[in-house]
Design brief:
The protein has 14 helices and 12 strands. The protein is an alpha/beta fold. Bound molecules: (3R)-3-hydroxy-L-norvaline.
Length: about 375
């Protein structure tokens, strides 16, 4: 941990350098020769030995014609949403234009489904090389420790969710990427209005996950207003998927319950029966993400939007399940950490701005969710692959 004093003096020195660099870069990037006008983008501190950009430097911006498909990089690709997102975007933009990345080795079926590379968001130079070598134009940033797992490892959550995010933000600004960062219902806290929770209200979350996501929202919007970075953000509710394991969150009970109901006919729930939370089926989540990324900039009155499909409690979900699995039994063994987190989160989400600005509309309500998830879990081989 650097001494704050030392950091302040280093910061002072670097701000001078950055000021000079920004003038040079700003002038250069606005020159007609470049042919692509960009507001003076922030120039990240160039390491500990700042390199001066010569006065006569000429930057050749890669200008993509409108017809070009975006070149997409997904970070944190092996989490709950990455693989489904990559498959969804590859159908839209072509397999080779969507690169999935993570720090872990992918399972065979993921490795065979399209481009997969190593990327560590804590390694700024690695991220920068990937963006340049692959001519990335869109970055969808999914690396993060979720709510419950973040509370069990705050220092790692802070490094990944905040320092890692700073690297992503700087690379996106430096290379003028369209940047998507998911936020969450967890970006609200006990002092936020909970029923419903609007886009703009008090946000004092009580988890490192929520704090880091509010930080990401605010930093992303700052870079949008200050430097013109095309930052877009959706606050996801609990996402429910059949083909991918959840990653240590508070809403994960709503994923596991289907697997256990089909496999064992019973489920032990970590939240109280009456705990109501906003939820969404993964197909709606992936479509919302693409729709906000493709929305014309002039349609966006906000850069961070709530999106949701439904809200339900464990007992309401169990009642819907019983319509299809009559022998199903639910028991409750409340996890105090997850319950405290859930009690601080929104019960219902107001996503009227997303529906008004860019036409958001969910397809899956609770009945459709339950039948779809049970059908997905119905084939044993598929469940085997997911584990
Ligand atoms: C969690 N599944 O429970 C995640 C999500 C809305 C919740 O962010 O932490």
């Amino acid at each position: 941990m650097r001494r704050p004093g030392g950091l302040a003096s280093i910061f002072e020195e670097k701000m001078t350098v950055v000021g000079t660099l920004r003038q040079v870069v700003g002038r250069t990037l606005q020159s007609p020769a470049c042919g692509c006008w960009m507001s003076a983008l922030p120039v990240r501190f160039l390491g500990t030995s700042p390199r001066q950009i010569p006065e006569d430097a000429s930057f050749h911006c890669a200008s993509f014609s409108e017809a070009d498909q975006p070149r997409v990089l997904i970070t944190g690709g092996l989490g709950q949403l990455g693989v489904g997102l990559a498959n969804f975007l590859r159908k839209r933009f072509g397999k080779d234009n969507v690169i999935l990345s993570d720090i872990r080795k992918p399972p065979d079926h993921v490795f065979r489904s399209g481009p997969f590379i190593y990327s560590d968001i804590l390694d700024y130079k690695n991220l920068r090389e990937i963006v340049v070598n692959n001519r990335i134009t869109w970055l969808l940033h999914y690396s993060a420790l979720l709510s419950a797992v973040g509370e069990a490892n705050v220092s790692l959550a802070r490094a990944v969710n905040i320092t890692g995010f700073h690297n992503v933000l700087d690379v996106a600004a430096e290379h003028n990427l369209r940047l998507f960062v998911p936020s969450t219902i967890g970006a609200f806290g006990p002092t936020s209005p909970r029923n419903p929770t609007p886009d703009l209200c008090v946000q004092r979350p009580r988890t490192i996950y929520g704090v880091s996501k509010v930080h990401a929202e605010l930093m992303g919007e700052y870079y949008y207003y200050r430097y013109g970075l095309d930052f877009r953000c959706l606050r996801y509710p609990g996402i429910i998927s059949a083909d991918s394991q959840p990653g240590g969150g508070t809403t994960d009970y709503a994923v596991q319950i289907f697997h256990d109901a089909v496999k064992n006919g019973k489920f032990e729930c970590s939240l109280k029966p009456s705990t109501r939370l906003p939820m969404m089926y993964i197909d709606d989540c992936l479509r919302a993400t693409l729709e906000v990324m493709e929305a014309p900039a002039e349609a966006l009155s906000l850069r961070t939007y709530n999106v949701t499909a439904m809200s339900f409690s464990p007992e309401e979900l169990a009642q819907e399940l019983l319509k299809h699995v009559p022998e199903f039994q639910i028991t409750y063994n409340v996890d105090a950490v997850r319950q405290a987190i859930a009690d601080s989160w929104p019960m219902n989400f107001d996503d009227s701005n997303a529906r008004k600005d860019w036409g958001w509309k969910h397809d899956f309500d609770l009945p459709e969710l339950v039948t779809t998830m049970l059908n997905s879990h119905g084939s044993d081989t598929r469940v085997a692959q997911a584990n």
